[in-house]
Design goal:
The protein is α+β, with helices and mostly antiparallel strands. The protein is built from five helices and ten strands. It has one domain: YbaK/aminoacyl-tRNA synthetase-associated domain (YbaK protein, Alpha-Beta Complex), CATH 3.90.960.10. Belongs to the prolyl-tRNA editing family. YbaK/EbsC subfamily.
Amino acid sequence: MTPAINLAKKKKVSHTIHQYEHDPSHSSYGLEAAQALGQDPKTVFKTLLFCLNGEEKNLAVAVIPVDHKLNLKLAAKAAHAKKADMANPEIAQKTTGYVVGGISPLGQKKALPTFIHLSALELPTLCVSAGKRGLEIELAPKDLAMLTRAQFVDLCQDA
């Protein structure tokens, strides 16, 4: 069990856990998950941390489809910041309590402002990391937003 799974259970949110054998040679954790689970990459979302206004410990979370790229200008706008940069992986791990490639938007050590890409609203369910590489949790977008107090916003460049 991970904090992400424990949170979903505690809040009695309908969810499904998916496991797969993580391949350490794979460079894209999100695309690996989609491929291993036989899921459309548009239904598997990655969790990215970004820092605001050049302050490396002022962080927010973006949850976007694994086949998309985060648009940092849109991320800054969503967080009401002047600029956004990708977070330092070590700081991301320390802040969330999860390893890079297994960072879940759920059950992080520190609650951060969270933004989910708008395309999630078109899906009945989506998958996000459940807190470790090779482990995904599938749940309804509205439940993910409720558990993370997230907003749905446009965050992506066209794929």
